[in-house]
């Protein structure tokens, strides 16, 4: 009886121990962005969007505009970049850091660079990801573009 009670207490304590953000979570979070980059570079906009929470709760802000929801975000991407490799160009991410937010959340800070498209550019992004039943998904994306290079003045 005493041994059974001790085993029960150990099991209850083990179950009550809060889960933490593990190295495998860091790898999974980085994997979301890697999968997005790969999908983009294949011209697979739907695959790229699979990294986002497919919900009206998704928040995306860029260029001074606020968008809410997966569909609105998808529609904006499709209107700006098309949905094939020829129009989407080549995307690269440089992850500058992953900051855990408890066991089920993380913020990723990074740089993006887009080439081989008329919409080429680059800038900084921060994305908040949440652990969902489907895996890690971006729930909030804030992307900024680098300032265009100053043009030399023609009026001297």
Structural class: alpha+beta
Mean pLDDT: 88
CATH architecture: Roll
Give the count of structural domains: 1
Task: Describe this protein's structure.
This protein has a single domain, classed as Nuclear Transport Factor 2, Chain: A. A six-stranded mixed sheet has the order 2-1-6-5-4-3, covered by helices on one side. The protein is built from five helices and six strands. By secondary structure, the protein is α+β, with helices and mostly antiparallel strands. It has helices spanning 2-16, 23-41, 45-49, 70-81, 85-88; strands spanning 59-62, 65-68, 90-100, 105-115, 121-132, 135-145. It starts with a helix and ends in an 11-residue tail after the last strand. A hairpin with a 5-residue loop joins strand 4 (105-115) and strand 5.
Features:
6 strands; 5 helices; 35% helix; alpha+beta; 156 residues; Nuclear Transport Factor 2, Chain: A; six-stranded mixed beta sheet; globular
Describe the SSE topology.
Layout: H1 2-16, H2 23-41, H3 45-49, E1 59-62, E2 65-68, H4 70-81, H5 85-88, E3 90-100, E4 105-115, E5 121-132, E6 135-145
Parallel strand pairs: 1-6
Antiparallel strand pairs: 1-2, 3-4, 4-5, 5-6
How would you summarize this macromolecular structure in one to three sentences?
With 156 residues, the chain is an alpha+beta fold. Helices cover 35% and strands 34% of the residues.
């Amino acid at each position: 009886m005493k041994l059974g009670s001790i085993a029960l207490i150990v099991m209850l304590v083990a179950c009550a121990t809060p889960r933490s953000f593990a190295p495998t979570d860091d790898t999974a979070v980085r994997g979301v962005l890697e999968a997005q980059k790969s999908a983009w570079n294949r011209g697979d906009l739907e695959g790229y969007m699979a990294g986002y929470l497919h919900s009206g709760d998704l928040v995306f802000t860029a260029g001074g505009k606020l968008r809410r929801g997966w569909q609105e975000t998808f529609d904006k991407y499709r209107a700006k970049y098309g949905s094939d490799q020829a129009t989407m160009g080549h995307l690269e991410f440089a992850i500058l850091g992953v900051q855990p937010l408890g066991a089920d959340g993380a913020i990723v800070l990074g740089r993006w660079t887009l080439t081989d498209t008329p919409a080429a550019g680059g800038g900084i992004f921060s994305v908040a990801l949440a652990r969902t039943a489907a895996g890690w998904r971006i729930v909030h994306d804030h992307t900024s573009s680098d300032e265009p290079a100053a043009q030399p003045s023609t009026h001297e």
